[in-house]
């Protein structure tokens, strides 16, 4: 009889442990979904905040800055009608997190109009850099002077940021832009690399 009670208790305990394992599995899945959703929300909030302050962030480089969506749409529509780009390439450029235009503030390119093609994330990864570069290349191919720009609270790695800078991508981390506004020689090198 005593052994039968122990067996029942062990059986109940095994069932309870099984239920607990199942519940932990569901909890892990829920936490994974929450992490993904919070990551998306953080990225969206960064994008919204950057859009609201784009004039301030980019004002050291550009004067008269403004949203470039309509300008870029006109450029893309014309290029697509001329067969220079595909509809998919046009849509890809339009999907940029921010399209901004302004006149270069100073230096040898002073008063020339450029378009900033920005990808904005909470944590910048390689895909963000690739998207900004590819979108700027498409615009350059159709004769627009566009520069890639990538911004985030942080970067996956400093190596990635260095790689982006070597590709003449303007980089921002936690509101600080590189190359820095005091290094106008580097800024002009970046601008020159993307001039059509």
Structure characterization notes:
With 196 residues, the chain is α/β, with parallel strands linked by helices. The protein contains 6 helices and 8 strands; from the N terminus they run H-E-H-H-E-E-E-H-E-E-H-E-E-H. It has helices at residues 2-58, 69-81, 87-94, 126-141, 158-166, 184-194; strands spanning 62-67, 98-104, 113-120, 123-124, 146-152, 154-155, 170-173, 176-178. The strands form 2 sheets. Strands 1-2-3-5-7-8 form a 6-stranded mixed β-sheet. Strands 4-6 form a two-stranded parallel ribbon. The mean pLDDT is 89.
Please state the CA-atom Rg, rounded to the nearest Å: 25 Å
Mean pLDDT: 89
* Share of β-strand residues: 15-25%
Main structural class: alpha/beta
State the share of residues found in helices, binned by percent. 55-70%
Shape: elongated
For the largest beta-sheet, the strand count, sense and barrel status come to: 6 strands, mixed
- Going across the biggest sheet, name each strand in turn: 1-2-3-5-7-8
Give the SSE string.
HEHHEEEHEEHEEH
Low-confidence stretches: none
Number of helices: 6
From the N-terminal CA to the C-terminal CA, the straight-line distance is: 90 Å
**Quick one: how many beta strands?**
8
List keywords for this structure.
alpha/beta; 58% helix
Q: What would a concise description of this structure say?
A:
The chain has 196 residues and is of the alpha/beta class. It has 6 helices and 8 strands; from the N terminus they run H-E-H-H-E-E-E-H-E-E-H-E-E-H.
């Amino acid at each position: 009889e005593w052994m039968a009670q122990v067996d029942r208790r062990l059986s109940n305990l095994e069932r309870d442990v099984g239920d607990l394992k199942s519940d932990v599995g569901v909890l892990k899945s829920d936490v994974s979904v929450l992490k993904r959703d919070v990551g998306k929300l953080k990225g969206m909030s960064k994008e919204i905040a950057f859009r609201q302050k784009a004039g301030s962030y980019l004002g050291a480089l550009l004067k008269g800055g403004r949203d470039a969506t309509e300008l870029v749409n006109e450029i893309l529509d014309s290029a697509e009608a001329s067969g220079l780009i595909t509809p998919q390439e046009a849509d890809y450029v339009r999907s940029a997190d921010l399209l901004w235009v302004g006149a270069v503030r100073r230096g040898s390119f002073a008063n020339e109009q450029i378009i900033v093609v920005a990808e904005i994330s909470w944590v910048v990864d390689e895909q963000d850099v690739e998207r900004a570069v590819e979108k700027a290349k498409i615009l350059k191919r159709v004769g627009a002077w566009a520069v890639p720009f990538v911004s985030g609270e942080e970067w996956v790695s400093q190596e990635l940021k260095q790689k982006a800078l070597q590709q003449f991508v303007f980089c921002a981390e936690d509101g600080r832009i590189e190359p820095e506004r005091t290094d106008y020689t580097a800024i002009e090198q970046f601008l020159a690399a993307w001039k059509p």
